[in-house]
Amino acid sequence: MKFQYVSICFLIGLMMSCGSTERVITEDGNVYEIKGNSIKNNGTDITETLTEERKSEIESTLKANRKAKAEAEALEEDLKAEQKALKEREEAVEEKQDELEEQQEALKEKLEAKEDARDDFLKAKKRLEKQQKKYEKLKKKGKLSPNEEDEWSEKLNDLKEELEEAKEKMNNLNK
User: Fold this and answer.
1) Domains of the chain: which residue ranges?
2) Could you say which of 91, 132, 137, 142 has the lowest number of CB atoms within 10 Å?
3) Longest dimension (CA), the chain
4) How many beta carbons lie within 10 A of that of residue 64, not counting itself?
């Protein structure tokens, strides 16, 4: 148990002491590894053998690389933000399009209902007129008995009620 704690502490200490190393490739193609203040080339520490001018060149290249990396990360973040905003706009457009399609469907259904109501009204009016003509014709010829007259009167009243209902339905849909 004690060994586990010691080994965990050792690993944590080792990781913290490693720090980060950065690679720098200079214009002449040499690859240097920089860790803290030491500069290595091919695994050999050459910090002391480099001239101050060469050290400053490596440092400036390192700073330029860091700056470029930071700019690239900033641009990547901006790009992600723009992509997110674009996606949100696309979703909003799709949502609006769905709403418009629903409205269009509702208008189409309302128009169909109006046409159906108008057709029903015209049919009811035609039936009433046809039956009234038939009744008048039979009445003029004297072919109606008092019972038949009551039946015709009731039939005509039903047709008038049907016509009124169709007219009311049509008027309600036209509001």
Assistant:
1) 51-173
2) 142
3) 136
4) 11
